[in-house]
């Protein structure tokens, strides 16, 4: 049964906790205008996020940003917990210096959107406390739930970092070193360089070689990594500022705001304007 808090100002979901016994609600491609955290237990199941396909086992935690497309399926029995929160309920950007969720749990343009849970006890204890607090409907409920959520996210960041140490390629050969250089180059140049060829030229390799390396280590394409990083920044600017789309597009290296709007909608599933309407805007300016 789901426990839900609705934002009284706009009637939208603010916070949700649900125990599920099967994957029926996840068996089709979907996009939500809020963050999703899924604690999943099962022998074998398949996770699809963006254009990536993951075969997972055991106890996993999955992290999804607003409008990130995903689905989960399995031929076997699976159960777990679903935690949703809207950016208006808890803004990850405002607490980035404390918790470091952005780039580790959410909006990591080259990393995995999941990790294998090493220690469950704290998570389940926090879920129990969150559930009890949602039943109370008492004074300062929002503050208490945010406090629980912060602890939950901090522990998730810690376990995700440890998980990444074991699965991230060790840069001990020339190919993996090229991959690291590509990731760094995209992070530093995504506002100016938009094509795989530009990055291949900068790294002194062929586009074919670059594509093979990205496929080998990340099961992705260079184009996907580049566009994903651009979209992450566009989402951030749309949410945190009141900048007009033309300015955001120009800052990201696009002279034509209408072309950028089509590019954004193709990648995210909604227009920049609808993204602001459903997720929020100018949040940094309203502090």
Features:
287 residues; alpha+beta; Jelly Rolls; Arc Repressor Mutant, subunit A; 7-stranded antiparallel beta sheet; transcription regulation; Tscrpt_reg_AraC-type_HTH; HTH_AraC
In short:
By secondary structure, the protein is α+β, with helices and mostly antiparallel strands. Helices cover 45% and strands 20% of the residues. It folds into two domains: 166 residues, Sandwich (Jelly Rolls), CATH 2.60.120.280; 106 residues, Homeodomain-like (Arc Repressor Mutant, subunit A, Orthogonal Bundle).
Radius of gyration (Å): 20 Å
* Main β-sheet description: 7 strands, antiparallel
Mean pLDDT comes to 94
> What is the correct CATH architecture of the largest domain?
Sandwich
CATH class of the largest domain: Mainly Beta
CATH topology of the largest domain: Jelly Rolls
| Fourth-level CATH superfamily of the largest domain | Regulatory protein AraC
Q: In the residues, how many domains can be counted? A: 2
Individual helix count: 10
Count of DSSP E strands?
Answer: 7
Order of helices and strands: EEEEEEHEHHHHHHHHH
Protein name: AraC-like DNA-binding protein
Organism: Leeuwenhoekiella polynyae
Pfam family, one: HTH_18
GO molecular function: DNA-binding transcription factor activity; sequence-specific DNA binding
